Amino acid sequence: MLTPDQARDRAADVVARATRAGADAADAVFAADASTEVSVRLGKLEDVGRSESGDLGLRVFVGRRSASVSSSDLSDQAVDALVERAVAMAREAPEDKWAGLAPAERLMHGAPPQLDLDDGGAIAPADLRAMAEEAEDAARAVAGVTNSEGGGASASRSVWALATSTGFAGGYATTGYSLSASVLAGEGGAMERDYAFHSARHRRMLEKPADIGRRAGERAVARLNPGRVASGSMPVVFDPRVGSSLIGHLIGAIGGQAITRKTSFLLDALGTRIFPEGITIRDDPHRPHGLRSRPFDGEGLPVSPVAIVEDGVLETWLLDSASARQLGLEPTGHAARGIGGGPGVSPSNLYLEPGAVPVDTLIEEVRDGLYLTEVIGQGVNLVTGDYSRGAAGFLIRDGAIAGPVSEFTIAGNLRDMFANMTPANDLEFRYGTNVPTLRIDGMMVASG
Protein backbone atom coordinates (compact mmCIF):
# COMPACT_ATOMS: atom_id res chain seq x y z
CA MET A 1 0.00 0.00 0.00
CA LEU A 2 1.12 3.56 -0.70
CA THR A 3 2.35 5.78 2.11
CA PRO A 4 0.34 8.92 2.94
CA ASP A 5 2.96 11.05 1.15
CA GLN A 6 2.74 8.89 -1.97
CA ALA A 7 -1.04 9.05 -1.90
CA ARG A 8 -0.89 12.83 -1.49
CA ASP A 9 1.47 13.16 -4.46
CA ARG A 10 -0.77 10.97 -6.60
CA ALA A 11 -3.80 13.13 -5.82
CA ALA A 12 -1.82 16.30 -6.53
CA ASP A 13 -0.66 14.88 -9.87
CA VAL A 14 -4.25 14.23 -10.95
CA VAL A 15 -5.22 17.80 -10.04
CA ALA A 16 -2.31 19.13 -12.12
CA ARG A 17 -3.46 17.02 -15.08
CA ALA A 18 -6.97 18.41 -14.73
CA THR A 19 -5.88 22.04 -14.81
CA ARG A 20 -3.68 21.34 -17.84
CA ALA A 21 -6.70 19.79 -19.55
CA GLY A 22 -8.75 22.97 -19.15
CA ALA A 23 -10.30 22.86 -15.69
CA ASP A 24 -10.42 26.22 -13.90
CA ALA A 25 -10.21 24.44 -10.55
CA ALA A 26 -10.10 20.86 -9.31
CA ASP A 27 -9.68 18.63 -6.31
CA ALA A 28 -8.85 14.94 -6.09
CA VAL A 29 -9.18 12.25 -3.46
CA PHE A 30 -7.12 9.07 -3.29
CA ALA A 31 -8.14 6.25 -0.96
CA ALA A 32 -6.56 2.85 -0.45
CA ASP A 33 -7.58 0.11 1.96
CA ALA A 34 -6.43 -3.37 2.90
CA SER A 35 -8.38 -5.50 5.34
CA THR A 36 -8.58 -9.05 6.66
CA GLU A 37 -11.68 -10.52 8.26
CA VAL A 38 -12.15 -13.87 9.98
CA SER A 39 -15.43 -15.33 11.23
CA VAL A 40 -16.11 -18.48 13.22
CA ARG A 41 -19.30 -20.22 14.26
CA LEU A 42 -19.80 -22.99 16.80
CA GLY A 43 -16.06 -23.30 17.18
CA LYS A 44 -15.35 -23.82 13.49
CA LEU A 45 -13.84 -21.50 10.92
CA GLU A 46 -16.61 -20.10 8.75
CA ASP A 47 -14.92 -17.52 6.53
CA VAL A 48 -11.63 -15.74 5.88
CA GLY A 49 -11.64 -12.68 3.67
CA ARG A 50 -8.95 -10.39 2.37
CA SER A 51 -9.68 -7.25 0.37
CA GLU A 52 -7.47 -4.56 -1.10
CA SER A 53 -8.63 -1.50 -2.99
CA GLY A 54 -7.34 1.71 -4.42
CA ASP A 55 -9.69 4.39 -5.75
CA LEU A 56 -9.39 7.87 -7.19
CA GLY A 57 -12.06 10.57 -7.20
CA LEU A 58 -11.78 13.79 -9.23
CA ARG A 59 -13.97 16.90 -9.15
CA VAL A 60 -13.40 19.63 -11.73
CA PHE A 61 -14.84 23.10 -12.25
CA VAL A 62 -15.24 25.04 -15.47
CA GLY A 63 -16.53 28.37 -14.28
CA ARG A 64 -19.49 27.55 -12.04
CA ARG A 65 -20.07 24.24 -13.76
CA SER A 66 -18.71 21.08 -12.17
CA ALA A 67 -18.50 17.33 -12.63
CA SER A 68 -17.22 14.43 -10.54
CA VAL A 69 -15.79 11.12 -11.73
CA SER A 70 -14.07 8.19 -10.07
CA SER A 71 -12.08 5.11 -11.02
CA SER A 72 -10.30 2.14 -9.52
CA ASP A 73 -8.07 1.89 -12.62
CA LEU A 74 -5.02 3.94 -11.65
CA SER A 75 -2.91 3.47 -14.78
CA ASP A 76 -1.66 6.62 -16.51
CA GLN A 77 -3.81 5.96 -19.56
CA ALA A 78 -6.94 5.47 -17.44
CA VAL A 79 -6.26 8.59 -15.36
CA ASP A 80 -5.75 10.73 -18.50
CA ALA A 81 -9.05 9.45 -19.88
CA LEU A 82 -10.72 10.16 -16.53
CA VAL A 83 -9.47 13.74 -16.57
CA GLU A 84 -10.62 14.37 -20.14
CA ARG A 85 -14.05 12.92 -19.40
CA ALA A 86 -14.46 15.03 -16.25
CA VAL A 87 -13.62 18.30 -18.01
CA ALA A 88 -15.95 17.48 -20.90
CA MET A 89 -18.77 16.66 -18.47
CA ALA A 90 -18.24 19.88 -16.53
CA ARG A 91 -18.56 21.99 -19.68
CA GLU A 92 -22.03 20.52 -20.23
CA ALA A 93 -23.21 20.69 -16.61
CA PRO A 94 -25.67 23.31 -15.34
CA GLU A 95 -24.26 26.32 -13.52
CA ASP A 96 -24.32 26.43 -9.74
CA LYS A 97 -23.51 29.83 -8.27
CA TRP A 98 -22.63 28.28 -4.90
CA ALA A 99 -20.20 25.71 -6.33
CA GLY A 100 -16.45 25.91 -5.86
CA LEU A 101 -13.52 24.84 -3.75
CA ALA A 102 -12.99 25.94 -0.18
CA PRO A 103 -11.60 29.48 0.26
CA ALA A 104 -7.85 29.37 -0.37
CA GLU A 105 -7.12 31.58 2.63
CA ARG A 106 -8.82 29.04 4.92
CA LEU A 107 -6.84 25.98 3.82
CA MET A 108 -4.66 24.16 6.31
CA HIS A 109 -0.95 24.80 5.93
CA GLY A 110 2.01 23.50 7.86
CA ALA A 111 2.38 20.19 9.68
CA PRO A 112 -0.90 18.44 10.49
CA PRO A 113 -1.67 17.47 14.10
CA GLN A 114 -0.28 14.10 15.17
CA LEU A 115 -3.28 11.99 16.15
CA ASP A 116 -1.70 8.53 16.54
CA LEU A 117 -4.19 6.84 14.19
CA ASP A 118 -1.83 4.19 12.77
CA ASP A 119 -0.15 1.68 15.07
CA GLY A 120 2.01 0.38 12.22
CA GLY A 121 1.25 -3.20 13.14
CA ALA A 122 0.16 -6.24 11.20
CA ILE A 123 -1.80 -9.23 12.44
CA ALA A 124 -1.93 -12.74 10.99
CA PRO A 125 -5.24 -14.37 10.06
CA ALA A 126 -4.46 -17.12 12.58
CA ASP A 127 -4.34 -14.54 15.37
CA LEU A 128 -7.64 -13.03 14.24
CA ARG A 129 -9.18 -16.50 14.25
CA ALA A 130 -7.96 -17.14 17.78
CA MET A 131 -9.50 -13.85 18.95
CA ALA A 132 -12.83 -14.62 17.28
CA GLU A 133 -12.89 -18.12 18.76
CA GLU A 134 -12.13 -16.83 22.24
CA ALA A 135 -14.96 -14.29 22.02
CA GLU A 136 -17.47 -16.87 20.78
CA ASP A 137 -16.37 -19.47 23.34
CA ALA A 138 -16.87 -16.99 26.17
CA ALA A 139 -20.35 -16.10 24.88
CA ARG A 140 -21.38 -19.74 24.51
CA ALA A 141 -20.13 -20.51 28.02
CA VAL A 142 -22.77 -18.22 29.57
CA ALA A 143 -25.53 -20.33 31.10
CA GLY A 144 -28.68 -20.09 28.97
CA VAL A 145 -26.94 -19.47 25.64
CA THR A 146 -28.15 -22.14 23.21
CA ASN A 147 -26.84 -21.16 19.79
CA SER A 148 -24.44 -18.81 18.07
CA GLU A 149 -24.43 -16.53 15.09
CA GLY A 150 -20.65 -16.45 15.39
CA GLY A 151 -17.64 -14.49 16.43
CA GLY A 152 -15.65 -12.20 14.18
CA ALA A 153 -12.37 -10.31 14.15
CA SER A 154 -10.92 -7.94 11.57
CA ALA A 155 -7.91 -5.72 10.97
CA SER A 156 -7.46 -3.01 8.36
CA ARG A 157 -5.17 -0.23 7.24
CA SER A 158 -6.32 2.74 5.16
CA VAL A 159 -4.65 5.68 3.48
CA TRP A 160 -6.58 8.80 2.50
CA ALA A 161 -5.29 11.86 0.65
CA LEU A 162 -6.71 15.08 -0.75
CA ALA A 163 -5.23 17.68 -3.10
CA THR A 164 -6.73 20.89 -4.50
CA SER A 165 -5.72 23.28 -7.25
CA THR A 166 -5.72 26.08 -4.68
CA GLY A 167 -2.62 24.75 -2.96
CA PHE A 168 -3.63 22.11 -0.45
CA ALA A 169 -2.20 18.58 -0.43
CA GLY A 170 -2.27 16.20 2.50
CA GLY A 171 -2.69 12.57 3.45
CA TYR A 172 -2.85 10.32 6.48
CA ALA A 173 -3.09 6.64 7.40
CA THR A 174 -5.25 4.80 9.92
CA THR A 175 -5.39 1.28 11.27
CA GLY A 176 -8.49 -0.34 12.67
CA TYR A 177 -9.27 -3.50 14.62
CA SER A 178 -12.66 -4.90 15.59
CA LEU A 179 -14.00 -7.88 17.48
CA SER A 180 -17.59 -9.11 17.89
CA ALA A 181 -19.78 -11.95 19.09
CA SER A 182 -23.49 -12.61 18.53
CA VAL A 183 -25.39 -15.42 20.23
CA LEU A 184 -28.88 -16.69 20.99
CA ALA A 185 -30.47 -17.81 24.24
CA GLY A 186 -33.55 -19.94 24.80
CA GLU A 187 -35.28 -22.49 22.59
CA GLY A 188 -37.65 -22.53 19.61
CA GLY A 189 -39.90 -19.52 19.20
CA ALA A 190 -38.74 -18.10 22.53
CA MET A 191 -35.15 -17.51 21.42
CA GLU A 192 -33.56 -14.11 21.96
CA ARG A 193 -30.48 -12.66 20.28
CA ASP A 194 -27.94 -10.07 21.39
CA TYR A 195 -24.36 -9.08 20.61
CA ALA A 196 -21.31 -7.17 21.74
CA PHE A 197 -18.46 -5.60 19.79
CA HIS A 198 -15.52 -3.28 20.14
CA SER A 199 -13.38 -1.32 17.68
CA ALA A 200 -10.08 0.49 18.16
CA ARG A 201 -7.40 2.22 16.12
CA HIS A 202 -4.64 0.35 17.99
CA ARG A 203 -4.65 -3.37 18.63
CA ARG A 204 -3.44 -2.88 22.18
CA MET A 205 -6.58 -0.87 22.93
CA LEU A 206 -8.99 -3.56 21.78
CA GLU A 207 -11.06 -5.03 24.57
CA LYS A 208 -10.29 -8.61 25.61
CA PRO A 209 -12.15 -11.19 23.50
CA ALA A 210 -13.45 -13.03 26.57
CA ASP A 211 -14.99 -9.82 27.93
CA ILE A 212 -16.75 -9.10 24.64
CA GLY A 213 -18.07 -12.65 24.40
CA ARG A 214 -19.26 -12.76 28.00
CA ARG A 215 -21.12 -9.49 27.54
CA ALA A 216 -22.86 -10.79 24.41
CA GLY A 217 -23.97 -13.95 26.21
CA GLU A 218 -25.21 -12.15 29.29
CA ARG A 219 -27.17 -9.67 27.18
CA ALA A 220 -28.90 -12.45 25.23
CA VAL A 221 -29.86 -14.39 28.37
CA ALA A 222 -31.18 -11.26 30.07
CA ARG A 223 -33.70 -10.83 27.24
CA LEU A 224 -35.38 -14.22 27.73
CA ASN A 225 -39.13 -14.42 28.35
CA PRO A 226 -39.98 -10.80 27.57
CA GLY A 227 -43.28 -9.40 28.73
CA ARG A 228 -45.43 -6.56 27.45
CA VAL A 229 -45.46 -2.98 28.59
CA ALA A 230 -48.56 -0.94 29.33
CA SER A 231 -49.21 1.96 26.98
CA GLY A 232 -48.93 5.51 28.24
CA SER A 233 -46.61 8.43 28.91
CA MET A 234 -43.53 7.55 30.96
CA PRO A 235 -39.78 8.16 31.43
CA VAL A 236 -37.54 6.22 29.05
CA VAL A 237 -33.89 5.56 29.85
CA PHE A 238 -31.60 4.99 26.84
CA ASP A 239 -28.62 2.66 27.20
CA PRO A 240 -25.51 4.33 25.69
CA ARG A 241 -25.60 1.77 22.85
CA VAL A 242 -28.85 3.27 21.58
CA GLY A 243 -28.75 6.76 23.08
CA SER A 244 -26.09 7.83 20.59
CA SER A 245 -28.69 7.64 17.79
CA LEU A 246 -30.48 10.63 19.35
CA ILE A 247 -27.39 12.79 18.83
CA GLY A 248 -27.18 11.45 15.28
CA HIS A 249 -30.63 12.92 14.62
CA LEU A 250 -29.41 16.27 15.91
CA ILE A 251 -26.49 16.19 13.47
CA GLY A 252 -28.80 15.30 10.58
CA ALA A 253 -30.90 18.36 11.36
CA ILE A 254 -28.04 20.89 11.56
CA GLY A 255 -26.11 19.89 8.44
CA GLY A 256 -25.66 22.50 5.76
CA GLN A 257 -27.86 20.87 3.13
CA ALA A 258 -30.77 20.49 5.56
CA ILE A 259 -30.52 24.17 6.44
CA THR A 260 -30.09 25.52 2.91
CA ARG A 261 -32.99 23.36 1.67
CA LYS A 262 -35.11 24.34 4.68
CA THR A 263 -35.79 20.71 5.51
CA SER A 264 -34.88 20.73 9.21
CA PHE A 265 -37.05 20.91 12.30
CA LEU A 266 -34.26 23.04 13.83
CA LEU A 267 -34.25 25.65 11.06
CA ASP A 268 -34.88 28.52 13.49
CA ALA A 269 -32.94 27.11 16.43
CA LEU A 270 -29.40 28.49 16.01
CA GLY A 271 -28.44 30.43 19.14
CA THR A 272 -31.42 29.16 21.12
CA ARG A 273 -31.74 26.64 23.95
CA ILE A 274 -32.77 23.22 22.63
CA PHE A 275 -31.45 21.09 25.54
CA PRO A 276 -31.66 21.73 29.28
CA GLU A 277 -29.03 23.86 30.97
CA GLY A 278 -25.82 21.96 31.60
CA ILE A 279 -25.96 19.76 28.49
CA THR A 280 -22.96 20.20 26.18
CA ILE A 281 -22.26 18.26 22.99
CA ARG A 282 -18.75 18.43 21.60
CA ASP A 283 -17.00 17.35 18.43
CA ASP A 284 -13.29 16.56 18.80
CA PRO A 285 -11.40 15.68 15.59
CA HIS A 286 -8.08 15.82 17.47
CA ARG A 287 -8.81 13.02 19.93
CA PRO A 288 -5.69 10.79 19.90
CA HIS A 289 -6.38 7.43 18.22
CA GLY A 290 -10.09 8.35 17.98
CA LEU A 291 -12.25 6.27 15.66
CA ARG A 292 -13.20 9.38 13.65
CA SER A 293 -10.19 11.62 14.24
CA ARG A 294 -8.77 13.48 11.25
CA PRO A 295 -6.10 16.13 10.72
CA PHE A 296 -8.11 18.11 8.12
CA ASP A 297 -11.59 18.00 6.63
CA GLY A 298 -12.79 16.84 3.22
CA GLU A 299 -11.99 20.19 1.60
CA GLY A 300 -8.54 20.70 3.12
CA LEU A 301 -9.63 23.02 5.94
CA PRO A 302 -8.09 22.72 9.40
CA VAL A 303 -10.27 21.11 12.05
CA SER A 304 -10.49 21.80 15.76
CA PRO A 305 -12.59 20.79 18.76
CA VAL A 306 -15.89 22.65 18.90
CA ALA A 307 -18.97 22.79 21.11
CA ILE A 308 -21.99 22.13 18.91
CA VAL A 309 -24.29 22.59 21.90
CA GLU A 310 -23.02 24.60 24.88
CA ASP A 311 -25.03 24.65 28.12
CA GLY A 312 -28.11 23.60 26.15
CA VAL A 313 -27.74 26.24 23.40
CA LEU A 314 -27.22 25.28 19.74
CA GLU A 315 -24.00 27.09 18.78
CA THR A 316 -23.34 26.17 15.13
CA TRP A 317 -24.49 24.54 11.94
CA LEU A 318 -22.17 22.01 10.26
CA LEU A 319 -21.19 23.61 6.95
CA ASP A 320 -19.12 22.74 3.93
CA SER A 321 -18.05 25.56 1.62
CA ALA A 322 -21.03 25.39 -0.74
CA SER A 323 -23.66 25.54 2.01
CA ALA A 324 -21.65 28.23 3.84
CA ARG A 325 -21.63 30.43 0.73
CA GLN A 326 -25.36 29.98 0.31
CA LEU A 327 -26.00 31.00 3.91
CA GLY A 328 -23.49 33.85 3.91
CA LEU A 329 -21.43 32.12 6.60
CA GLU A 330 -18.00 30.51 6.92
CA PRO A 331 -17.37 26.76 6.48
CA THR A 332 -16.97 25.02 9.82
CA GLY A 333 -14.36 22.36 8.95
CA HIS A 334 -16.91 19.52 8.87
CA ALA A 335 -16.77 18.70 5.16
CA ALA A 336 -16.67 14.96 4.53
CA ARG A 337 -15.63 13.48 1.23
CA GLY A 338 -16.06 10.14 -0.45
CA ILE A 339 -14.58 9.04 -3.73
CA GLY A 340 -17.60 10.04 -5.79
CA GLY A 341 -19.40 13.38 -5.80
CA GLY A 342 -18.80 16.55 -3.85
CA PRO A 343 -18.44 17.03 -0.11
CA GLY A 344 -21.15 16.55 2.44
CA VAL A 345 -20.79 17.20 6.16
CA SER A 346 -20.01 14.91 9.06
CA PRO A 347 -18.82 15.28 12.65
CA SER A 348 -15.75 13.49 13.92
CA ASN A 349 -15.57 12.16 17.49
CA LEU A 350 -18.92 13.39 18.74
CA TYR A 351 -19.89 13.13 22.39
CA LEU A 352 -22.37 14.41 24.94
CA GLU A 353 -20.62 15.41 28.13
CA PRO A 354 -21.53 13.41 31.25
CA GLY A 355 -23.98 14.82 33.75
CA ALA A 356 -23.69 14.80 37.53
CA VAL A 357 -26.23 12.03 38.24
CA PRO A 358 -25.08 8.42 38.75
CA VAL A 359 -26.89 5.87 36.58
CA ASP A 360 -28.44 4.20 39.63
CA THR A 361 -29.88 7.51 40.76
CA LEU A 362 -31.20 8.28 37.27
CA ILE A 363 -33.11 4.98 37.38
CA GLU A 364 -34.11 5.20 41.06
CA GLU A 365 -36.02 8.40 40.28
CA VAL A 366 -38.33 6.46 37.91
CA ARG A 367 -41.39 4.82 39.41
CA ASP A 368 -42.73 3.30 36.17
CA GLY A 369 -40.69 3.46 33.00
CA LEU A 370 -38.46 1.69 30.51
CA TYR A 371 -34.77 1.01 30.04
CA LEU A 372 -34.05 0.68 26.29
CA THR A 373 -31.35 -1.60 24.89
CA GLU A 374 -32.57 -1.74 21.27
CA VAL A 375 -34.38 0.57 18.86
CA ILE A 376 -35.77 -0.67 15.57
CA GLY A 377 -36.85 0.95 12.31
CA GLN A 378 -36.35 4.34 10.70
CA GLY A 379 -39.39 6.28 11.92
CA VAL A 380 -37.68 9.66 12.31
CA ASN A 381 -38.79 12.71 10.32
CA LEU A 382 -36.06 15.38 10.43
CA VAL A 383 -38.34 17.90 8.72
CA THR A 384 -40.90 17.86 11.54
CA GLY A 385 -38.89 16.22 14.34
CA ASP A 386 -41.49 13.47 14.75
CA TYR A 387 -39.97 10.33 16.27
CA SER A 388 -41.46 6.82 16.38
CA ARG A 389 -39.44 3.61 16.64
CA GLY A 390 -39.91 0.04 17.71
CA ALA A 391 -37.94 -0.90 20.80
CA ALA A 392 -36.95 -3.56 23.31
CA GLY A 393 -35.45 -3.41 26.76
CA PHE A 394 -36.48 -3.73 30.40
CA LEU A 395 -39.19 -2.43 32.69
CA ILE A 396 -38.30 -0.02 35.47
CA ARG A 397 -40.49 -0.54 38.52
CA ASP A 398 -40.15 1.51 41.71
CA GLY A 399 -36.66 2.66 40.75
CA ALA A 400 -35.19 -0.73 39.81
CA ILE A 401 -34.66 -2.67 36.59
CA ALA A 402 -37.36 -5.35 36.32
CA GLY A 403 -38.05 -7.97 33.64
CA PRO A 404 -37.40 -7.75 29.89
CA VAL A 405 -40.03 -6.36 27.52
CA SER A 406 -40.32 -6.22 23.75
CA GLU A 407 -42.67 -5.43 20.86
CA PHE A 408 -43.52 -1.86 21.79
CA THR A 409 -43.12 1.56 20.22
CA ILE A 410 -41.72 4.76 21.68
CA ALA A 411 -42.80 8.08 20.20
CA GLY A 412 -42.39 11.81 20.66
CA ASN A 413 -40.98 14.86 18.95
CA LEU A 414 -37.23 15.43 18.99
CA ARG A 415 -37.62 19.02 20.18
CA ASP A 416 -39.53 17.81 23.24
CA MET A 417 -37.18 14.85 23.71
CA PHE A 418 -34.11 17.08 23.66
CA ALA A 419 -35.74 19.52 26.09
CA ASN A 420 -36.56 16.73 28.57
CA MET A 421 -33.19 14.93 28.52
CA THR A 422 -31.11 14.15 31.61
CA PRO A 423 -27.61 12.63 31.18
CA ALA A 424 -25.99 10.31 33.73
CA ASN A 425 -22.30 10.49 34.66
CA ASP A 426 -21.15 7.26 32.91
CA LEU A 427 -19.71 8.51 29.61
CA GLU A 428 -17.24 6.09 27.97
CA PHE A 429 -15.46 6.55 24.64
CA ARG A 430 -16.24 3.31 22.76
CA TYR A 431 -17.76 4.40 19.46
CA GLY A 432 -17.63 7.23 16.93
CA THR A 433 -20.51 8.93 18.75
CA ASN A 434 -20.58 8.53 22.52
CA VAL A 435 -23.17 9.46 25.13
CA PRO A 436 -23.76 8.56 28.76
CA THR A 437 -26.97 6.85 29.82
CA LEU A 438 -29.80 9.27 28.99
CA ARG A 439 -33.27 9.64 30.48
CA ILE A 440 -36.08 11.35 28.58
CA ASP A 441 -39.20 12.10 30.56
CA GLY A 442 -42.70 12.06 29.13
CA MET A 443 -42.30 9.80 26.10
CA MET A 444 -45.34 8.02 24.66
CA VAL A 445 -45.12 4.23 24.78
CA ALA A 446 -47.51 1.94 22.88
CA SER A 447 -47.62 -1.83 23.32
CA GLY A 448 -47.42 -3.85 20.10
Automatic annotation (TrEMBL):
Residues 122-224 form the Metalloprotease TldD/E central domain. It comes from Sphingomonas jinjuensis. It comes from the Bacteria. The lineage of its organism: Bacteria, Pseudomonadati, Pseudomonadota, Alphaproteobacteria, Sphingomonadales. Residues 26-90 form the Metalloprotease TldD/E N-terminal domain. It holds the Pfam family PmbA_TldD_1st. One of its GO terms (biological process) is proteolysis. GO terms for molecular function: metallopeptidase activity. Residues 231-446 form the Metalloprotease TldD/E C-terminal domain. This is PmbA protein. Belongs to the peptidase U62 family. One of its GO terms (cellular component) is cytosol. Transmembrane segments: none annotated. PANTHER family: METALLOPROTEASE PMBA.
